Amino acid sequence: MHLKETLKALAKTKEALRAPSSDWLLSGFAKTTKEKPQKTIIDVAEKHRIVTGAFPGLYSYSRTPYMHEPASLLSPRSSYRQITVMAAAQSGKTAGVIENFLLFCTELGLPSNALYMTATENLAKEFVQERVDPMYNNADIYFTSDQSLSGSVDVTKKTGNTTFKKTGKGWTHVFKSFGNIREVRSIDYRVILLDEVDEMHQKQSQHNQGSIIKIAEARTRSYAGREKIVLCSTPLLAKSSIIYEQFQKSDQRHCYIPCPYCNHYQHLEFKNLKWVFSDKDRTKVDRSSVYYECEKNKCKIKNADKATFLTLENVKWKPHNKTGQDGHAGFHFSALYCPPGMTPWEQIAQDFIDSKNSVDDLQAFTNLTLGMPFHDTQAPQSAESLNSLKEPYKSNTIPRPDIQEKLPLLATMGVDVQGDRIEYELVGHAPGYHTWSLAYGVIKGDTSSYSNSVWVIFKDMLKMKKLIIQPKMVFIDSSYQTQEIRAVCSGTKSLRPIMGVNTLHGDKIRRRYLKGFVSYDGTPIVSYDVDTTSYKRTIYKNLLLRRDENGIAPAGFCRFPIDYNIQYFRGLQSEVQEPQIDKRTGKIKGYLFVQRGRRNEPLDCRVYALAALDAIALEHCEYNDMKTTDFNFFWENVRKKSMET
């Protein structure tokens, strides 16, 4: 009899293992929980989750109704295996899917081996302590050691509850940073939750780990057909965005809501947000004027109207990609959908105006508010594509006037110093930031002492007027052999030691006077700090410019001699922008230009030459008792002197 009962139990287990993949989490386990099998993530979150902060109380999907469908697809009975949520920051996306899914598994005591991963250990720890622990505590979750979470977590005891690992009856939740992924390479997971996945991009490169998506797929392979992979992130740069790439592979769902006046369903786009300005400078938005224009009947929808149209009954998600991956649902929404009490349309309009004059601010607006990746128009082109910028003149010759009768009115020089050589570029300038590369050269020799022959040759080149146009100012990089470069500049009129920095927070150049080194007139020599990031962005932007069909060159147009080779242009395009992550918080703190395996001296020399022009204009305007740099005044004086000579 005992054998017969055992065989029956084995038969039931075998039948449970044959359960369809859509029932992977509940099949065979319904009897292990007091909750009914039909319970969903929405049911559990709205019954058991207590939130604090701006909107305290029981969690409700009616506050962020656009999160209802993404959460419902995480249900055990859903056939979707990957959910991708690309959205604006502070929009409730992480709480709506990742946090509530963890609570769902623990509250029902359902078997689930889950891995949560984010960019850094600090971010993972912050997520556990500030989000997960309070959520479990408020829901009275019990761990295998029969200890509920109360107060701070005791990470010194080997219990089922530590900072980075929570274990209950039938479930285990592990919290890791991408940098520590090697620790879980031998473990299989049924559920993988990737939070702010775009911030893992740089970590992915630093640790040579390979694609985070491939890793997730490999770690869930043992549960093929029963796995759940969730990606949730605000996108960053389009060219390297993981969340954007995955969203494109999905069915690409967009959120549709009805116009409260004509009932036309539409998905909200920033281009339809309208406003007028309250000042003549067009820098301040009249908040009372902000409205969303209905795409069909031009109805004026106000932010306050969200209370009537942004509801669970009204929100509908529609896929835009019929060829997306099977079992892969993707969702995108911007801050335009944020409910009352969160980011209003009036603030979105003002944030956009405030961001227009800064590439960094515009990128932040695109990422954080629109929930879209930033398409960097200043990314490098191929070196071959720059051949079209060659003009019919040779290096170290005077270019002929073009159809606009433009010629360089003055020249500056940028000098990059290496241990065994000096590289320089002579750049001609005209109003409207038109530039001509007039000469590029390399002088080889030991640069470690200001008295060495390489510096004698360099100074003789300037003194003996071997260049077609004498540079008005020469910027020499002093980051290598700083004291020696300052000595080189001492006693001269046009040479300036400079230091390149990543950002000056508002200024492109900043002047300093150096004690112990004197200029030709006995005064302390002037040194400049140069915001190299700002100038590199300008260079990459200007290299995109081309003449129109009539041969007219736009402002900022760059011209190069016909005899420049491909190596020069490769050096000019030698760097790319990469996100920089704060080591403490794991958040993106900015973008820096980094080399990609090519020599970058041509790019650096051009940066210094452009900065030298700004320094000339600054000093000229100050000499004429002007408080700010006026380029119109500056160029008018340059023209007068040019005509005199």
What does this structure look like?
- With 645 residues, this protein is an alpha/beta fold.
- It has 2 domains: 38-148 and 157-255 and 319-342, P-loop containing nucleotide triphosphate hydrolases (Rossmann fold, 3-Layer(aba) Sandwich); 383-644, 2-Layer Sandwich (Nucleotidyltransferase, domain 5).
- 29% of the residues lie in helices and 22% in strands.
- The protein has 17 helices and 25 strands.
- Strands 3, 4, 5, 6, 7, 8, 9, 10, 14 and 15 form a 10-stranded mixed sheet that branches. Strands 21-22-20-19-16-17-18-23 form an 8-stranded mixed sheet. A 3-stranded antiparallel sheet has the order 11-12-13, with helices on one face.
- A hairpin with a 6-residue loop joins strand 12 and strand 13 (300-301).
- Helix 2 (41-48) crosses helix 4 (93-108).
- It starts with a helix and ends with a helix.
